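Mods, move this if it's the wrong board.
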Amino acid sequence: MKLSLIIPIYNEEKNISRLHHSITQIMTENHYDYELILINDGSSDRSIQMIEALSKQDAHIRYVSFSRNFGKESAMLAGLKSARGEAAIILDADLQHPPELIPQFVEAYYEGYDQVVARRDRDGENMIRKIPSQLFYRLINRAVDVELVDGEGDFRLISRVVIDSILSLDEYNRFSKGIFDWVGYSKKTIPFKNVQRKAGQSSFNFLSLLDYAIDGILSYNNKPLRVCFYFGALTLFICLLYILTTLIQIIFQGIDEPGYFTIISSILFLGGVQLFSLGVIGEYIGRIYYESKRRPHFIVEQTNVEGLKHD
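Not the wrong board. Structure tokens:
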């Protein structure tokens, strides 16, 4: 069996050499036939120079370098389109996804599983990141039609049938965690201890997590639109009830001087509902707008992968 190892890279010059050494050691010890696909996602450091130098020394390395930063989703897609193996393993370049788990992945694959997913615990994780991440999973599992498990990420082995199923989905706005679950197939989970980044700096922060949560919620259902409908219906009912109550008071008690608080609170409440609903609708319209453009997911500036220019 030929394995395709897919690694998105963004400003990881401090980790590339250690990553290459670790993977080479694991693959050699286990006598695997493999290719190492490195996707440079518009790095501003010396990542691409290091990748090119390694590719001249190691025939296993195939690389793709984007014309700019298109994001990890595009990088993973480029890796899957470049993969020639019977199965692919996606892992990060910061070594927080231990290559030592690869033999367990392969063993589970031979047991008949099409998806072998690593699930990390959160021991030692920074509370600033740990708490928002846990809230993210609680929120998104209430909002979307797929099931996402806390600790399960992109670090996984997927068989060729899963790769082809994923590549058949040509949507522009991609949310891989949801896609992996949506395509289905047999799955096995392998737990592992959380590994701290030893070099470099993560580009993932609270705002990135918030944007990622919004993408996930809007990519797999229309529940936010349904919430707007129910919220609007409830607001309309309350307003009609208020109008009816006020009308009855006018009939039996006469007209009182209008209350400043009532007017202001009503305007602010209704205005807030309208803006919130317009924001949700706008997000969906924006996604329709991007889908209708049919722009490529990425543009390749340089590569040693034949036939891959943009997609």
